[in-house]
Known about the structure:
Blueprint: E1 18-22, E2 40-43, E3 51-60, H1 67-70, E4 75-82, E5 85-94, E6 97-103, E7 112-113, E8 139-144, E9 151-155, E10 163-166, E11 172-175, E12 178-181, E13 187-190, E14 192-193, E15 202-203, E16 207-209, E17 215-217, E18 243-245, E19 250-255, H2 256-260, H3 265-277, E20 303-305, E21 310-312, E22 327-329, E23 336-341, E24 343-344, E25 359-361, E26 366-368, H4 370-377, E27 381-383, E28 387-389, E29 404-406, E30 408-409, H5 419-425, E31 436-440
Parallel strand pairs: 1-31, 4-10, 6-7, 21-30, 24-26
Antiparallel strand pairs: 1-2, 1-19, 3-5, 4-5, 6-8, 8-9, 11-12, 13-16, 13-18, 14-15, 16-17, 18-19, 19-31, 20-21, 20-23, 22-23, 25-26, 25-29, 27-28
Amino acid sequence: MYRQGWWESNEETDKGLRRVCIYRYNGYLPQGDKGRRRSKFVLHRREKPNGIKRSKHYVVDTPHTSKAVLDANVHSISYTLSRNQAVIVEYVPDEETDMFQIGRSSEMPIDFVVMDTVAGEKTGGVDKSMQSTISRFACRILVDRKPPYQARVFAAGFDSSRNIFLGEKASKWEENGVIDGLTTNGVLLLHVKGSFVGGDAKALPWREVSVNGGMYTMRESRSAPQKGKKMENESNVLGDGSMIDLCGVTLLWRTAEGLEKSPMRRDIEQMVDIVNAGRPQCPVGLNTLVVGRKTNSIERQPYVYLKCGHVQGFHEWGLKKGAESKERTCPICLTIGPFVALSMSLEAAAYSDFGPLSHAFFPCGHMVSEKTAMYWANMPIPHGTKGLQAECPYCATPLEVYTCVHLYYENVKKFITSEQEFKMTNVHHLPNRFSFCSIIPGK
Length: 443
């Protein structure tokens, strides 16, 4: 069974559930989550298995007219060696796994439709002048139907005819009698060492995943013809906090076990209520500020000086008339720096702990806990053809040298400073059971 969204836990059916999120959309698509185009996607065990496994391979002269390619009931991968020669690999049904596919195409074989997004774009719009770098059939994930419900990611997905074609120019090779290859822009995978929950995990190097699920070092550039070095001791099995990059969008994978220990949306809202209960005040306008409410008036909307962290209301003190610079002078400490509105970080799956909302990313102003801020500030996200950079997980804005800032509220005497204090305050806390988290543009 394949479902989307949240539902109550069922011990027999929900143990294998996983969730993937788009690192960028802050919990929802601006145009609304509809059908297979969503900001997060929940994987649930299907009523009937649709997994596949490798069967046999053979050489043909005309791959597009071969029986396996023409038969819509047979999954096959065609590796083109030359104009007149190709290797066809056939796959047979696997009753032990479920398959889920991700890509830019809206064809039915794609379970999770993704698209390129402009980093930091508030409306979530697509830059139509930019040619997409995401493959129409980017990758596939096979999940075991039995415990421990391992999930594996593979480059390339099957089209409506159940075929995958690797062209003559695609990187491909044969090893121990088995042919394998890479897609044009590649599928990258990052694992973390340690637990994502708690924010103490460290990012391991990005690797490229092959069509057969092999792990390789990154190519010199995304579309370089030469494959990287094979990493024999590394696996394409997804773990809590693993990230998949599809050259234009990045996915964050969360497991049921990890999300049991992670905050939910209502937990974040209660953290905001704790801040508002302290009645933070603007020292210039002397008006009470209200954090995290969409209906905020300009007088109540909190802003932060990103160089010093002082939170104030909107005012023009310290603004140089006629100056093009967005920098202002903080009236409390006289530090000069950017002055931006504080924004709520609503996608709970990107939080690593229950800490107070004490920090904001620089330069976008999204509020998070200290450990969450430090985690993402040290997470390298693929950028362009071969670059890596830290980004805000809620809007994909590249983080600057400072990466984040500690927030200082006027008139707020005490923050809850630990997960234990939060749980003592939140007596109705029920942890989120399951989730497959968000996608981040890597542009």
